[in-house]
Please model this.
Amino acid sequence: MKKMAILLMALLLMIVTGCSQEAGTGVGAPSTIQKAVEKKKLVIGTSPGYFPFEMKDKQGKFVGYDMDLGRAIGEALKVEVEFKEFEFSGLIPALQTGDIDMVISGVTIRGDRALAVSFSDPYYSAGQVLMVPKKDNVTQSWKDLDQAGKKITVSQGTTGALLAKQLFKNAQVMDFDGFTNAALAVKQGQADAVVFDDPGIRVYEILNGDSVRGVYEVLSSENLGIAVPLNDHGTVQWLNSFLASYRNGPADQASINKWFKSNEWINEVQQNN
Model:
């Protein structure tokens, strides 16, 4: 079965490398996958700090669920994988200018983003929730905080930021560079809540349970996808076929068990909190 999957992946790769591309990679231009195979290297953009998807360990190595996915892609292609760090809001511009080959960084598949990049099929589904200071033992819903004078922090450029600005009509929504800074404002009592993805909030609460608590009312659900250059259909086709065999397979399950079902890794990663 495994040999058959490898054979099918190799066959698809041959098809992809022969495909011509439309606008975004140019008619007849090689796909991102083809170029990665030719140069034997795949450059992936990411934004560490989104626990447990992308982080750095204490030795500076990129680790997390998304990093495992990126390395699995590299293994399937038999190429070296390099991760390049950006602020989250800088990832799509970096992809557009060719500084990176693809983005794996907890990016939600959205229509506005699909005007600038193309997405693979979803590789993970997440929900947006709240986190409030520990001393707030009253808040049970975002509606409890939609009041004049309340401050809601968000990570700039994220789906949580867009959602908060749609939901909160009376409270002030404040943009920060990255979740760590947005969460720190709540932890230090400078804001009343942060809106972010459920997995990230749960891990932050484990690390800082004496000062914050999660409010796990799901505000919205969304799918995370791999972003590639706009209209790079050959690469999207290859990624979708790869994900069909990777998701819920042995490597994926091992990654899920490590990062989502255990907290043994927490003391091994950098914690800018």
